Every structure is written in C-alpha cells, then in structure tokens.
Amino acid sequence: MTTRTGGEWVVEALRAEGVRHVFGIPGVHNLAVYDALLRQRDIVHVLARHESGAAFMADGYARACGEPGVVVVTTGPGATNTLTPLAESYSGSVPVLCLMSDIASDLVGRDLGALHEVPNQIACFRPVTRWAELVADGRSIATSIAGAFDLLRTGRPGPVALSIPNDLLFGTSEGVVRSERAGRRPPCHVNEIAEAARRLAAAARPLIVAGGGVVSAGASAELLEVARRLGAPVITTVMGRGAISEADPLWHAVLPNKRATEEVFRDADVVLAAGCRFAARSTKGLLLNLAFAPHQTLIHMDLDATVIGRMFKPQLGIVGDAKNGLGGLAAVLDAGAPNSRWNRERLAALKTAASERYTPEVDGLLQALRSALPPDGILVNDQTGINYWAEWRYPVLAPRTFLYPVGSAVLGYAVPAAIGAQIARPGTPVVAVVGDGGFMFSVNELATAVKYRLPIAFLVMNDDRYGAIKWLQEQMFEGRWGEADLANPDFIALARAFGARGERVAAVAALPDALRAAFAADGPTVLELRMEVEPPWEM
Fold first, then answer.
1. What is the pLDDT of residue 1?
2. Which domains does the chain have, with CATH numbers?
3. Which listed site, 44, 165, 249, 521, has its alpha carbon 20 to 30 Å from 116?
C-alpha cells in the first residue's frame, strides 16, 4: 500500500490505464489533480477555454483514435458545462471519462450553499452516462477509475462520470494502482453464429447493416469478408461510416438516406444488423420510415443486449462483440461464389439516387473536400446545410475519419472535436466544417488550437443565418421565417485576432488548394466560404 494525495491517485490511475492526453480546465477544487499532472511527463494536459469545449475535445479524441477521451473539470458550473457534450457522447456511444471535483464530502447533499455547490451534483450526470458515481473515500479513487475503464473496455461504449469531493483530492490516503488492465468484450455464442450463418447462406437477397459497434470493435476486415462471402450490399449507419470503404462496390448507402435504402430494405429477405441500434433519428426521422415485413428475417448482433429488439424485434438476437461475431460468421460461411440474387444494376441506380436539391454545386463542394484530404484524413462535421448532405454523400474511405454529432445534432461540436481529433492523430489532416452560426458557439476554442499550434482547417460556411432553420420555417409555415438571420463578425479578422491564419475562399474550385495550405501551416487556419446550401430533408 502507498500513501498519496487524491490528486496523485487520479493521475497514477490514469497513467496505469495508458492515458496519454487529458483535456480540461483547472479550478480551485481540482488543483490537487493539476499539481500531480504538473509533476509528471507521461500524460499531456490540453488546456481548453470552456468545459464544454474540453469535453467535446475528449469526444473527438475518442472517435478519432478509439481510446477513451478524458476530461477533468472543477465543481459545480465547471462540471455541469460538460453535460451537453456528454449527452452527445452517450447518444453516439463514445467512450469518455469525465472526472470532476465536488464540494467537501461532509457537505455533499446538505444544500448549505458551499462554493460551487450543485446539490447532489452526480445525479445530474446519470441520464447522460453509462455510469455516474460519487467517490466515497480516498482509497476508492484509483479503483473507481480502474472500474470505469473496465466498463469502457467491456461494454457498450459511452461516457462515465466520477465525482470526487475536493477534501479527498487534497487529502492523503492509502491505495493501490493495478499493474495490469482488465476486461474484454464478451464473445458471441457459437450456436447463434451457426444459426445466423445458416439463415444468411440460404438468403436470396441478404443485406448487412453495419453500425458504430463495428467501428469500435475494429471489425472492418471481418465485415468485408462476410459481405463478400454473401455477396451482400452493406448499408452503414452514420456512426458506422468507414467500417467498409465507400469506394468498395459492396458498400451501398448510409442508413437514413431513404432514396438509396428504402427499396433495398424492402427487397431484402435476410438482414444482418451488426453493432447497430436502429436509432429513431435515422429510422423514423425526416426521411426513412423503416419497417420489416413478416416474411423478412432480422438478425441483430450487438454488444448491448438492451438494444436488441428495442426498435425492431429480430428473429435471431446475438449478444456479443462484433469482431468476434463477424469473424465467426466469416469462418462458417462458404468461401465459394455467393448465392445472392440481387439486381446489381438496380442497386447501382439506387446508390446514386438523390433529390433535385442535391445540386452540382453541393456535389462539387463535397468532392472538393474529399480531394483535399487523403484517405485517412479526418472530416469533422457540425450542423449546417453542407454537413447534412455530407452525412450521406461525402465519400468515407476509412473508419474514424468522419466525425458527426449524429445523436444530439448539437451546434458547436466541430471546432473542439477537431482539436481532440488532431491531438489523437498528429500529422493527419483534419478539417472542421461549420456554419456561421455553429462556429460562434465554440469559436473561443480557436485560442486552444493556436496555443498548441494545431494545423486544423476550420471551414466556415457563411450565409448570415441559421440556414436550415430558415428552410424549415418556410416549409412549415407557408414561407414565413424569422429570428434566423445573424449579425456576424468579420471571420477573417477574428481569426487573425486569435493568432490564426484567415482566408476568404472565392469559389469552391479554390478550396482544395486552400485546404492543403492550411494542413501545411504552423497553426490553425480559418477559411470562409460564402454559400447557401439547402438541407436534404423532404417534408
């Protein structure tokens, strides 16, 4: 047993789990953690300008590299500022650990007006985390952090929140840090895999839906092998994009893209959904209204048993890791010529189907972004007209290269998430695409990108309004709209005031060269492109 301060136990426990980066802001109650961070070299701290930015950075970090993102914040408002980012991490199944200080342990729950007090602070976090717990004594700090990482490694990914009273952080206690990391994802049952293989092998038109669980499991190779052995088209969810390269002939479309997917779902006789929870936003949203007919067989494989059957009742449910399950299917399925009888010409026609609002100008912008980025380059999306099209139409060639706040559709995500992604994968080109409205939600984090000289390209799509909101108002209310027009700053002057590069891009044709110059710069670049883009929704 060793005696350390609570702050030291936090840092030692994180180091034992292999954490290399922490995002956060110091405050009076968590300074013991910062004192411990300052006295070591294994973990690099990234100083954000707002706690929401720090938590979005941790989210972007986790999505880009697959390792849990860690955010450290102080009591009360510092902690509650992370709630919106954690809500996005929860809905997107992104592994984030939020470590927050709390008021002194003898004051918790008493509502006495302590500095920064939020009565029962940890209760705020239970709706948006997989696990949220108040640490009861200093000896439990290291073991609680170890338990959080065990949960992140073995279960469905998502945020975990630990609240540590400040007297425990500053005080000393005995404890122990484990020397070996524990936990692995549960395998799928071999009998269920055999039954799934039997049904899929007998299918005339098998279809695969790959979700974020395939990406988090690192199961891209297994997915592609199963698809090839079946001759099955692959539809990916938004979180599953990149699980199979979208240049592969077997990739078909993104789940909520109704024009491309609705008929394919209707024609499939056996559907294998792997690592996919069939979220309502994608299956019962503004376009696709998915349903399965009685004659269709749904095989649903997921690490989280609670999502199986929540939206659609499967004929066969399989609980377990997607890499293990898809690998088992690949081992059982015949390696010969597939038996599927899909009409490939019809699939090809559906794959490119789009509404008349998918204009050559919109397509040109997406292709310009794709041409400027290498296959492993990262596109970080916010919420604006072109991002709604990118959700379906931007070609994603590798996993963890398309970051999109699909769960909460939150504004202000892209700027800090791009910072997290760049830190997770240094040397990889990163571009954040934001609207003029969304950029102003988190423009303060441009100072963080400048501080750490991160060569991120921030592309601001400027139409002087919340363009998607204006479009929705016009559709819903006979052309009336209001309170969506914006008074914007001079974005280029603003960028330069922060110490970043700034450039107005005169036309889409000039964008690839501007992006390449940004990726080669010694710090961030703000690019402004004036362009109006209508969203793809059909009312």
1. 74
2. 2-172 (3.40.50.970), 190-351 (3.40.50.1220), 360-530 (3.40.50.970)
3. 44
